[in-house]
């Protein structure tokens, strides 16, 4: 099973500050995803990547940037954090080939972000 | 557009009773369907998945789910629940092809409470 780790596990930020959430996976998966989880919404996709150097916008990308510098690492960046970005953020990885399209995703433990 | 609906935000059952968690999807073709479980303060773990073939799929920890194309449903079932099954359960779908291969669309989740 894929090992996905996230750091930090908890973060308190101030409005207008910059926040970087990091994700690392050790099973050489091509695909990585960032979701946020809010009550009543399930998980919503923010950004995703099909490999090093690539990032794509998900359903709710506004206010977020992503970076995939290597196969193992995928970061989510909040340049100007706002209280509405208070949430739990999950990273996931998967190894499906794009031509097939089916990707069993393995999730990290989550990062709890509070923006004051 | 595709979507997933979990009509029950919370389900309470007694230990040893049977369980059904409901999931309805909206998609014009047959999607790929997943059930994930989230224990407190943890990431999501895959319970089972359906791609094609036998509409009843078996998962971990004696969970199973039945796909129904006519009802656009993918309900999760268990014959006898244990208190340790208390968690939040998410239904999700993925579609083949399109601009975002492999991405998951989640329902809002159902919190299962098992009373000892």
Summarize the structure.
The complex is a heterodimer of chains A (116) and B (116). Chain A has 116 residues and is mainly beta. Chain A has strands at residues 4-7, 10-13, 19-25, 31-38, 42-49, 56-57, 65-67, 73-78, 87-94, 106-107, 111-115.
List the helices and strands and how they pair.
The complex is a heterodimer of chains A (116) and B (116).
Chain A: E1 4-7, E2 10-13, E3 19-25, E4 31-38, E5 42-49, E6 56-57, E7 65-67, E8 73-78, E9 87-94, E10 106-107, E11 111-115
Parallel strand pairs in A: 2-11
Antiparallel strand pairs in A: 1-3, 3-8, 4-5, 4-9, 5-6, 7-8, 9-10, 9-11
Chain B: E1 3-5, E2 10-14, E3 19-21, E4 24-26, E5 32-38, E6 44-50, E7 56-58, E8 64-68, E9 73-78, E10 87-94, E11 105-106, E12 110-115
Parallel strand pairs in B: 2-12
Antiparallel strand pairs in B: 1-4, 3-9, 5-6, 5-10, 7-8, 8-9, 10-11, 10-12
């Amino acid at each position: 099973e894929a090992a996905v780790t996230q750091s930090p596990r908890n973060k308190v930020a101030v409005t207008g500050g910059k926040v970087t959430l990091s994700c690392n996976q050790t099973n050489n998966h091509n695909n990585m995803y960032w979701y946020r989880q809010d009550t009543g919404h399930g998980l919503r996709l923010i950004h995703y990547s099909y490999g090093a150097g690539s990032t794509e916008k998900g359903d709710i990308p506004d206010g977020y940037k992503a970076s995939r510098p290597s196969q193992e690492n995928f970061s989510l960046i909040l340049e100007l954090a706002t209280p509405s970005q208070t949430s739990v953020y999950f990273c996931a990885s998967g190894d499906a080939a794009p031509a097939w399209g089916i990707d069993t995703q393995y999730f990290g433990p989550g990062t709890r972000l509070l923006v004051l | 557009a595709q979507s997933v609906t979990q009509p029950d935000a919370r389900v309470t059952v007694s230990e040893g009773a049977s369980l059904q968690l409901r999931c309805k999807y909206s998609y014009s073709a047959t999607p790929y369907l997943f059930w994930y479980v989230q224990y407190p303060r943890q990431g999501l773990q895959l319970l089972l998945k359906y791609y094609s073939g036998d509409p009843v799929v078996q998962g971990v920890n004696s969970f199973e789910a039945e796909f129904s194309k006519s009802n656009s449903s993918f309900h999760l079932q268990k014959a006898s629940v244990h208190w340790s099954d208390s968690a939040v359960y998410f239904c999700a779908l993925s579609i083949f092809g399109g601009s975002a291969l492999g991405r998951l669309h989640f329902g809002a989740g159902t919190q299962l409470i098992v009373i000892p």
